[in-house]
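Hey team,

Filing this mostly as a record. A colleague (T.K.) asked me to run one chain through the structure pipeline before their review meeting, and I want the input and output archived in the tracker in case anyone asks later how it was produced. No errors, nothing strange. Just documentation.

Input sequence:
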Amino acid sequence: MSTPTLDVISFGSATQDVYLFAPSLRATRDARSSTGASLRIPAGAKVEVDRLLVEVGGGATNVAATFQRLGLRTACVCKVGTDAAGDHVLRVLRELSIDTRFVVRDHDDPTATSVLFLHNGGERTALVSRGASADLTTRMVPWKRVRARWFYVSSLGGNLQLLRRIFAHARRIGAQVAVNPGKTELRQPSARTLLKSADVLLLNREEAELFFRRKGARVLPAVAAWRKGMVVITDAARGSTVVSAGGAWRMRITPVRALDSTGAGDAYGSGFVAALCRRPNDIPAALRLGSINSASVVQQVGAKHGIVARRLPRGPWMRVQRVRT
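Output structure:
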C-alpha cells in the first residue's frame, strides 16, 4: 500500500464568520438563560456597530490552518455553497496552502454563515445558519483518494454514520483518528461505543461531564475506566488534562486577556495533535503546544489569527505534572 502524501486530513464544517463589534451591547446575568447570561438587544431600535469583520471559520478549516502553519501537509473535507461565501472559503484555504481537492460545492444550499457579537472580554454570541455544512454525507467523500497519517474530525452535526465510515476507512489505511465531537454527537447513545475507536478524544469540561455522566473530580476515574486511546479534557483558564494508557498528565496555564474565544477549542485540539504527529508519545509536548496555540489564538479576533509558528517559547507556566485518576 502506498505511503500517504498528506499528514492530516480534517473533517467538519466550513463557515463564513461575520463579526460585529458593538460596545453598547453587554451581557447581563439571566437565570432563565441556558448559559446564565443574556445579551440584550433593544427591540425595534438601531444598534450602532463600530466595526464589521468577515473571516473564514468552521472546525475543518480552523484546525487545517494550524496543521499547515506548523509544517504538516494538510487537506480538509467540508462542504460549501456555490456562492460568493463559498468562493471566499476556498480562496482563504488556498492562500493558507491547504489542499482543497476534497471540498464539496453544493448547488442548492448556501455556505454556512455565523454572525458573531463580541462582548464582555472575548465572549461571543453567535447566530448560526448551518447551510451547506449541515449535510456532508459519506457518498460525497472520494474515499479512495482520502489518505493521510492522521484524520482530525470536528463536529459533524450529529452524523455518526459519517464518523463510523471515517473510523472504518482509517483502519483500512492505517491512519490515526482524533475526534473533537459536538454535543449533537455526544448525546447519541451509540456514541459511547463508537468513540472508543478514537486514538485521541478531545472534550471540554462540560462535554466530558455530559459524555461520562459525572461531575467535577469524578470525571477522571470514569475516563480512566472507559478510554482506549488518549482522552483530553480542557477546562478554559484552569488548563487541561490527558488520560492515556501510560497515566494522566495535567497542565495549568497562566490566563491571558482574550479578545475572541471563537476557535479556542479548535486551536487547542489541532495544536495537541500536531505535536503528536511530530513526536507520537510525547504527551507533555502535546499539552504545551495545544495550550499555547489556544492562548495565542484567543488574543486576536478570528479563529485563524495568532496560530503559533514551529518554534515555541518555554517557561515555568508551561510545566506539566503527572496526576492520579
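Quick notes for T.K.: The two ends are 40 Å apart (CA to CA). Residues 264-278 form the longest helix (15 residues).
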